Amino acid sequence: MAGPALRILGIDPGLRITGFGIIEKNGSKLAYVVSGCIRSGEAELPDRLKDILEGLREIIEEHRPQQTRSRSSRPWSATATQRRCRCRKW
Prior knowledge:
- This protein is α+β, with helices and mostly antiparallel strands.
- It has a single domain (6-85), classed as Ribonuclease H-like superfamily/Ribonuclease H (Nucleotidyltransferase, domain 5), CATH 3.30.420.
- 34% of the residues lie in helices and 36% in strands.
- It contains two helices and four strands.
- The protein has helices at residues 45-63, 74-85; strands at 6-12, 17-26, 29-39, 67-70.
- The chain has a four-stranded mixed beta sheet, covered by helices on one side.
């Protein structure tokens, strides 16, 4: 018998657009809860970071996830950056 559902917040970080999605895992079943993005625009970096923090705080308060996951950009951007500027491996 499955226990209580586990709510997971996934974050795709970005300084202008930060994506998020929430799913519930109950045993082997997954269910979509909500997804969207936080737009921080073209403001100065401290203001953009503040917008992202406030947006994530609202999402967390409303949906109460028990776990979070963040997409690491390094595996994808390292290869693209190496191709663009012929950099060494990181």
